[in-house]
């Protein structure tokens, strides 16, 4: 369907996105072939990078803007929720940071699976920083993925989840809770937005418009990676120049109805496979799902695609599966 949609609607963006997808496939392949030593190194790097990004994000929230520490950070205002600003670390948007920090959490759970003593304390301490960073992104999609995963991990028998999972998850929520209290106005504002009569109307409008485009172009779609371009060409003031924030709707709009069906079926197939995996991996995969259904970062942006590819590679890695059992 990708080739048919591209042939019917050729564009340089389609070529660019094809290269990104191929790079993502390469990352998945490399990640799933890593041995135990390589997996451990990757997990350490991800967790450490996540902790550093978290410190930067909290500092940004306190400062109220970026620090212009290029290439680590760049100047500019931050999203405001009430009187609080959402930190974004070295990313362009706070929700992009959220996705990376959740991957870092998953990596910490894998890397610290059988840790004890001083090593476990290092994993626990690192994860508390991740919780602090997640708190200042004010992401509601994060809650939809993290809370069920945490419940699943904490209710699992110790011999199935490992002795380190509960301390690591506990440290994450401790960091999240303490930082949320410091920036309580932001979370209070997000709660009011969720409870309001127009809650998430923006996302509903985006999805409805995406379905409308899919209905107008049912056979070959509008072409890969052309969604925002097509919306701009319509010049509709009531529709934001944003993707539909749902991977299935975007696939249906860009690749045609069959493309949306294929993506949905692929997701169900992957979920069915995951249900036979260790509890640690089921929860780890669940962290990403809300961002696939309610956001665009994991499958539209280059860094998001790379993060998703590494995530899938870890889920499919035989060493990780054996270690998580």
Automatic annotation (TrEMBL):
Read off the InterPro entries from this record.
O-antigen_ligase-rel_domated, WaaL-like
Tell me which UniProt keywords the record has, alphabetically: Membrane, Transmembrane, Transmembrane helix
Question: What are the TM regions of this chain, as residue ranges?
Answer: 95-112, 132-155, 167-184, 247-271, 278-293
| Alphabetical list of Pfam families matching this protein | Wzy_C (PF04932)
Spell out the protein name for this chain: Unannotated protein
- Topology in the membrane? Multi-pass membrane protein
Look up keyword Transcription and say if it applies.
no
Source organism of the structure: freshwater metagenome
* Lineage per the UniProt record: unclassified sequences, metagenomes, ecological metagenomes
The compartments listed are: Membrane
Residues annotated as domain O-antigen ligase-related: 129-263
Give the CC-aspect GO terms.
membrane
């Amino acid at each position: 369907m990708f080739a048919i949609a591209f042939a019917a609607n050729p564009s340089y963006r389609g070529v660019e996105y094809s290269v990104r997808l191929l790079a993502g496939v390469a990352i998945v392949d490399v990640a799933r072939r890593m041995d135990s030593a390589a997996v451990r190194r990757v997990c350490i790097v991800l967790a450490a990078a996540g902790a550093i990004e978290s410190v930067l994000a909290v500092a940004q929230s306190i400062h109220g803007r970026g620090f212009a520490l290029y290439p680590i950070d760049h100047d500019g205002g931050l999203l405001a929720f009430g009187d609080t600003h959402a930190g974004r670390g070295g990313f362009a948007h706070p929700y992009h940071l959220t996705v990376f920090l959740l991957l870092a959490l998953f990596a910490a759970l894998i890397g610290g699976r059988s840790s004890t003593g001083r090593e476990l304390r290092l994993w626990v301490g690192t994860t508390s920083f991740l919780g602090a960073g997640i708190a200042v992104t004010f992401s509601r999609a994060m809650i939809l993925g993290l809370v069920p995963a945490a419940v699943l991990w904490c209710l699992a028998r110790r011999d199935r989840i490992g002795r380190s999972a509960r301390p690591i998850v506990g440290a994450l929520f401790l960091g999240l809770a303490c930082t949320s209290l410091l920036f309580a106005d932001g979370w209070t504002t997000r709660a009011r937005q969720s409870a309001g009569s127009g809650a998430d109307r923006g996302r509903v409008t985006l999805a409805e418009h995406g379905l409308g485009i899919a209905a107008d172009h049912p056979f070959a779609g509008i072409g890969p990676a052309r969604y925002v371009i097509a919306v701009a060409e319509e010049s509709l003031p009531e529709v934001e120049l944003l993707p539909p924030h749902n991977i299935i709707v975007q696939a249906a709009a860009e690749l045609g109805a069959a493309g949306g069906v294929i993506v949905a079926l692929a997701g169900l197939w992957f979920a069915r496979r995951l249900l036979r995996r260790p509890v640690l991996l089921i929860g780890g995969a669940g962290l990403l799902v809300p961002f696939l259904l309610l956001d665009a970062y994991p499958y539209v942006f280059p860094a998001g695609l790379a993060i998703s590819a590494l995530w899938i590679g870890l889920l499919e890695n035989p060493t990780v599966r054996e270690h998580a059992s």
